[in-house]
Amino acid sequence: MNPIRRILVPIDFEAPSKHATECAIDLARNLEASVVLLHVYDVLVMAYPTAPLINIAHVDAAVQTVASTALDESVTAARERLGSVTGILRRGGTWEGILAAATEVGADLIVMGTHGRRGLAHAFLGSVAEKIVRMSPVPVLTIRPPSPT
To answer: Does the pTM exceed 0.85?
Structure first.
């Protein structure tokens, strides 16, 4: 196995990805590796034949601004614990964006949080983590958030 030098951490700013970020930072410190925080967002567009056309460019710009600010805050917080942290913001499909970024940044490992949904929630919402585990060209470590005490 190749040494782990770059760890990709997809984040959605929720508790599971925050916990995964903390775990990735601890792992990176022990391995003398760098961390890349990645946030992939998308703006859903729905069209109806009788509805007026809505310019979504304003919506997209607003979402991008909010996502960029949140990512910058996450990178700044992570750098307090590990100096070698960078951030990437992408627009598009989540799992596709994660796999593309893993290749582009030369990730040796993906560390990602999982919500641990089951049953209907899993069936309706799917699992990004599951797709990444099945399709990733590099090892994937999934992290569940700690159970509430």
So the answer is: yes
> In this structure, are residues 2 and 139 in contact, taking their beta carbons and an 8 Å threshold?
no
Distance CA 11, CA 15 (A): 10
11-15, 53-57, 107-111, 133-137, range with the lowest pLDDT? 53-57
**Model pLDDT for residues 7-17, shown as the tens digit of each residue:** 999 999 999 99
Who contacts 22 (Cβ-Cβ below 8 Å, separation ≥6)? 81
CATH classification code of 6-143 = 3.40.50.620
Of residues 115, 68, 125, 114, the one with CA closest to residue 91: 68
Q: How many CB atoms lie within 10 A of CB 21?
A: 27
The first and second tokens of residue 107, run together, are 């990730």
Alpha-carbon distance of 63 to 103, in angstroms, equals 25
Cα(first)–Cα(last) distance of the chain, in Å? 37
The DSSP letter of residue 148 is P
Q: Could you identify the residue written with the tokens 């590099």?
A: 138
d(CA 28, CA 6): 8
